[in-house]
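Dear H.,

Thanks for agreeing to be a second pair of eyes. The structure we're designing against is below in token form, covering all 168 positions.
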């Protein structure tokens, strides 16, 4: 019995969304205009920064004072950290964004906030507090680089002590 081989017939289904919306991206001049608006924005993110930093401290205190430690406490703490990470760089608070990125990476690698984990988050909070209170903008120069490096070392010591391999 011999089977003849036929070339497959490809059928492209209609793309209704593309038909409704059209093709192409945003014109470069529109992107440049939007970037200019962001760069020259009078929006001051510092009040939001202070609020999110305050939320981190509140979450730390709630966790310390709770009878049980749960993963929910970790996930609750992630929200303000994500906000700082995401918005910090957009509003020229790059150092805050970098500190928050370190804290977020740490929070995503643990399941429960034990006493050592709380101390790691407290160190990140202690780094964020004066930066947000004093409205320090930019990357923080050489001191900012050292600060970020030391925060990573704090996390690394926790991982080593608790035999954790963080997801990279």
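And this is the sequence the design step returned. I haven't edited it by hand at all.
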């Amino acid at each position: 019995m011999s089977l003849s081989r036929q070339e497959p017939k490809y059928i492209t289904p209609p793309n209704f969304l593309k038909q409704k919306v059209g093709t192409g991206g945003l014109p470069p001049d529109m992107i440049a205009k939007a970037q200019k608006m962001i760069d020259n924005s009078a929006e001051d993110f510092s009040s939001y920064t202070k609020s999110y930093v305050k939320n981190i401290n509140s979450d730390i205190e709630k966790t310390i004072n709770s009878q049980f430690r749960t993963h929910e406490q970790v996930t609750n703490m992630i929200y303000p950290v994500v906000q700082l990470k995401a918005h910090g760089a957009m509003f020229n608070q790059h150092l805050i964004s970098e500190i928050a990125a370190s804290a977020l990476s740490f929070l995503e690698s643990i399941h429960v906030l034990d006493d050592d984990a709380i101390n790691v988050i407290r160190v990140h909070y202690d780094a964020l507090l004066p930066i947000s209170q004093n409205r320090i903008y930019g990357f923080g120069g050489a001191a900012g680089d050292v600060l970020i490096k030391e925060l990573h070392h704090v996390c690394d010591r926790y991982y080593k002590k608790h035999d954790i391999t963080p997801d990279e």
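Two observations from my side: The domain at 44-161 is CATH 1.20.120.160 (Four Helix Bundle (Hemerythrin (Met), subunit A)). The CA atoms of residues 23 and 38 lie 26 Å apart.

Warmly,
E.
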